[in-house]
Specification:
The complex is a heterodimer of chains A (226) and B (461). Chain A has 226 residues and is mainly alpha-helical. Chain A has helices spanning 2-6, 8-30, 34-37, 45-60, 66-70, 72-90, 93-101, 113-136, 138-141, 146-166, 172-192, 197-215. Chain B starts with 14 loop residues before the first helix and ends in a 14-residue tail after the last helix. In chain B, the strands form 2 sheets. In chain B, strands 2-1-3-4 form a 4-stranded parallel beta sheet. The chains are: A mainly alpha (226), B alpha/beta (461).
Chain lengths: 226, 461
Amino acid sequence: MYEFVSGPLALSTFLIFFLGLVWRFIWYVKGLNWQADRVAYTQNARYGVRGALRSILCWLIPYGTHGWRYYSGFTALVFIFHFGLLITPVFLLGHNELLKQSWIGFGLPALPEALADALTIAVMVAALFILVRRIALPPVRILTTAYDILLLVIAVAPFFTGFMAYHQIGNYNFWLILHILCGEIMLIAIPFTKLSHFILFFMSRAQIGMDFGIKRGGMKSKGFPW
Amino acid sequence: MPEGTLCNKKTIDTQEALHALLADKSGKKYYEEMKQLDVNATVLWGVIRKTLKSRLRTWLEICAHCGMCADSCFLYLTNGRDPKQVPSYKIQSTLGELVKRKGKVDNDFMHHCMDTAWSKCTCCNRCAMYCPFGIDMGVMFGYLRGLLFSQGFVPWELKIGSGMHRVYRAQMDVTTEDWVETCEWMCEEYEEDWPGLTFPIDKPDADIMYTVNAREVKHYPEDLAEAAILFHLAGENWTVPSQGWEETSLAMFAGDWAACKMQVESVYDAMKRLKSKRMVVTECGHAYRATVVEGPYWAGLKTGKTPIESLHYVEWLAEALRTGKLKIDPSKKIKEPVTYQDSCNYIRNAGLAECAREIMSYIAEDFREMTPCREYNFCCGGGGGFNGIGRYREQRNIGLKIKRDQVLDTGAKLVIAPCHNCWDAIRDMEEIYHIGIRWSFLKPVLLKMVLVPEHLKPKDE
């Protein structure tokens, strides 16, 4: 079982994940239309690039925009959650050891194990607060669907199962295999669900950045003050 | 009765059709007929499939339902934080649902969409500033309005408005003759006070082609005179076109894209015909948005720009004051506290916040910003057609509260509002809430304080 989920299944997962992202990228760019979107993308490329980069960068910086500053508490949750979600698996000692032992033959530098553990807990706690917020606040509750909660579960499951396996709570093999499966589910879900914002965040931000950078004032001002 | 005689999917292209609609007071029969209007789901879905591309589909799909757009919306804030006023909810429950059901929706649903698209969103685009994904619900509501218009579900006043543009190339029934006569009349009226004042019509190769809002011609002709006097004092070589003088676009509020194209092309034709160097648009927000910002796209101009460089009135005025074409008598600057209403259409959506501040620095001694301001300012409460729709008057009046409180907080009793919609909304706000404020366009304020060059002063008898 372990051989299967960490071998062919893992390989297929990564393939689907990467190809899925490429497909999302191509689909998005091909679907842009200067006249329908009312943005002269190619004619004013310099302003477009400037607008796109500003739009992405400002929103990647914690408290870098009016929006992030307005909802300061939620912003903290969002950044902790996403930082842990992206950094922990990529720089985890265990994951990189597996890479070194595999046909790839090398791994990335690893985080100290205690830090990785803390990040894992942070992701789970942040997710819990995000869930509570969803249910407690009327303007968020009205938007919330079962799908939103399912996605949160998909995103957190690899962390929870990984945590259980790492600390050997209960049956190690059970949690390990479940952990791998959950990780694979998440990776496959990325291109096919709302988790596609993994890449579409950048596309969408770039687009609105170009919109404001080219058409809505970017050529007559210093750029939109996100 | 699927298609009514007044309420149907046809556009208004003749005077007769316009008159028939106008005769139906407040759209009573029109809205009655709308209750029976069928939805052509096949056509609707066909349009959606053809026009709903990756940008809009992504916006609908990846919305994280985080609610960060909630407080950005003045209608959410003024309606007791009703969750049904959260921008994301408003668009998901209308356009989102329409797409999910592949256009197979009924009359009730279309009514729900119409009421939401025109009474719960003014397309001010403020929510786009607060969405981490940059989802612009104002743009999506604009798109939805287009779909609704094509199916005949559009407020009565806006059906008339778009018809006006189709028939008269103006938002009101102002003909070329009416327009030219009004210009001449204003010139005659004021030339005694302002020796040498002219109102050049169709003058080729001028430096400035000036274009207006039909309301000025029909109801506020002094505004035209003030513009002429200020150009005269600034020594500008200017003109107005006899045709293609109307900048506004109720068709844009209605979602009648074909009429939008007709309207802006009439202005672009005038640009080409008169070969002016630049165009200046009157103190109107949506007019500038329609003709300068969005218009080139409707007309299929790949550069995204108007055929000649186009300026909003605040851009011209800031330039005239900066370069000394117009000089202010320092003793006549506004002394009382004064605030400025940032119009969504040319501040948030066209980057002219700095021009407005520059002008205020020349003309006011105690300028007070609203909070928030500039690109983040709230809609006046009457944008996107909201001011003009009787059916939603009550909702509009509730929405005005945000501006009322913003103005009160500045302590200013004078609001400079260089946008017809904002100006109207603030006037109505005073009528309804009696907070004791005054409001003004820039032109009359400027006329009270500009220095008149010696050779342009009236000769004493």
